[in-house]
Protein: Enoyl reductase (ER) domain-containing protein
Organism: Clathrus columnatus
Amino acid sequence: MLPKTTKALVVAEAQDKSELPYAARVIEQELRPLKGNELLVRIEAVAFNHRDVCYILCFHWQLADLTSIQLWIRKNLYPGIGVGEVLGSDGAGMELLPISLFERNSPWWGIGSVIASGTANDILIGRRVFLTPSRGWDQDPTGPEQKFTVIGGVKGPSIGTFAEYVIVERNEVIEIPPHLDFEHAAAWPLAGVTAWRAINYQAGVKRGHNVLVTGIGGGVAIIALQLLVFIGANVYVTSGSDKKIQRAVELGAKAGFNYKSGMDLEKVLKQENHTLDSVIDSAGGDILRLTSKILKPGGVLDFIASNRFYDERGFSQYTPQGYMAYSFSLLICCAHHHLGSAMGSKRELLEATNFIAEHRIIPVVCNVIEGLESFEDGFELMKEGAQFGKIVIRVHRNSKL
């Protein structure tokens, strides 16, 4: 029997809007009949992103003052937030049922009918897949072809991964590489495509390049480090935690620098007669000044779309309007290329997935939580800010993955 309902974690109105404009709760939803090109996917694992807890729900406890981040939500500066919409951009699971051309007008047909349909889509029945985390950007390397949207918590498209079952269009799933289990596959898509585009299309990193990755510990930064190591770059990292730096070195970083104890990156690079070819920055802060002397002329400083309005030292990186302080004198005098990255296309996600399959790269998962009802545990872990890697929910408790 196919399921007729699903549990889902949705955006809800907060009871006390003086503190947070939105809350989250698990509800039971009906599953509608499938349309012609749709699949029913049993979700096995989902991963948290700062987008879910910061932009959508405003659960960013690392901030000393929530005023500026609340402005984003209360002034509707994050487009399309929808009460009742399912949260989550990253999810991995198994295909249960694609509707065949022969059964298009027949809702909830049995598995046997679909297996016998003979359509091309049927080859994915029972296969392990992850959902593509965005819509509107298929293959143009310069930017989205249509209105770009990240799924989860928004009105259009009305789809999110934090659910037991998800109905999704056939062309919005990608098969999971064989070496990944569901938890690690769930940690891959959004962070993976973001890091891949920043490295390959924005910074143009090649073997032997010297690259600085800031804010190591977050999902994008860690995957960027892993990809860069396999490309053959010399990778340096920054963090406010010696423990995170040590983990990064174990993953292949050349060295790490703790900004809380004094940044000596310039000294080390001079000793090795190196300058940086590029900086992949997802931490923000005073990165322009810090890298102006060690980024080579013509080097690339690539800003990853960041959810941090204050750094771990409490220094403001952005104004309440969301703008980073910017020095045009540094831009002109140093002849650097300053670029911005925000995710990437479906084509880039496919390229990146093929790359990690070839090199058997495994995204770092730091915590696995059992069941959607335990979502608050994930928020608490993100509040602590000590994680190194992704926080994942195993949706079906005690399932053997």
Notes: The chain is about 25% helix and 25% strand. Residues 191-341 form a domain with the Rossmann fold fold (CATH 3.40.50.720). The mean pLDDT is 76.
